[in-house]
Specification:
Elements: H1 2-14, H2 16-52, H3 63-76, E1 80-84, E2 95-98, E3 104-110, H4 120-127, E4 138-143, H5 151-159, E5 161-164, H6 166-175
C-alpha cells in the first residue's frame, strides 16, 4: 500500500497536468454515472406512478401489495410519515400516516375480489381499534371493491370512519386528490 502511494505521489510531481486531467476525467465520470442513475430512478418512479393510476392493477395484488400501493397513493397525495404496518398483529392498522392538515391517519386496507364485499364485521373490528389502540384522528377503511350496504356503513358514518370504495379509490388514484371527506371539507 505504501509503495502505491509513493508511486502516485511521484507521478503527480513529475506530471502535474496529466494528473489534473486524470482527476477531472474521474470526477466527470462519477458525476455522469450518478446523473444517469438519478434519471433512471426518476423514470422508474414516474412509470410506477403511471401504473398506480389504474385501480384495476390492484385486482391481482396480494393484500400486502395493496397496502404498499395505497401507501404510495397517500405519499403522492401529500400525506407525510406514511408507514405500512400490515401483517399479523397489526391490530387493524395496515397503514399509518399524517394528513396534510396534521391529523394522525390510520388505515385498514381490504383487497377484495370484485364479487366479495367488505361487511359490517370488518367495520366493527376496525372501529374498536382505530382511535383507542392506534390514536387515529382520521380512521379509514379502503377497499378495491365495495362495502355491503346496511348497518356497517351506518356505523362507520356514526363513528366518523371514512369508507373508500373502488369508485372513490379510482378517482383518487387517477386525480391524485383524496376524497373531500378526508380533507375536512
Amino acid at each position: 500500500m505504501v509503495v502505491v502511494v509513493v508511486l502516485i505521489v511521484d507521478f503527480v510531481r513529475r506530471h502535474p497536468y496529466w494528473s489534473a486531467t486524470l482527476v477531472l476525467v474521474a470526477v466527470a465520470s462519477v458525476v455522469a454515472l450518478l446523473s444517469v442513475r438519478a434519471r433512471q430512478r426518476e423514470r422508474q418512479r414516474a412509470e410506477q406512478a403511471e401504473r398506480d393510476r389504474a385501480v384495476a392493477v390492484t385486482d391481482t395484488m396480494t393484500g400486502a401489495e395493496f397496502e404498499q400501493w395505497f401507501a404510495r397513493l397517500l405519499e403522492a397525495s401529500e400525506f407525510r410519515h406514511v408507514h405500512v404496518r400490515g401483517g399479523s398483529g397489526d391490530r387493524g392498522a395496515d397503514v399509518t400516516a399524517t394528513a396534510p392538515d396534521g391529523r394522525r391517519v390510520v388505515v385498514q386496507c381490504k383487497r377484495q375480489s370484485l364479487t366479495n364485499r367488505v361487511g359490517s364485521a370488518a367495520i366493527q373490528r376496525f372501529a374498536g381499534t382505530c382511535r383507542e389502540v392506534h390514536g387515529g384522528e382520521l380512521c379509514m377503511i379502503v377497499t378495491n371493491g365495495f362495502f355491503t350496504a346496511g348497518d356497517g356503513v351506518r356505523l362507520a358514518q356514526q363513528l366518523g370512519i371514512v369508507l373508500v370504495d373502488r369508485g372513490l379509490l379510482e378517482t383518487w388514484a387517477w386525480t391524485g386528490t383524496p376524497p373531500s371527506s378526508l380533507l375536512g371539507r
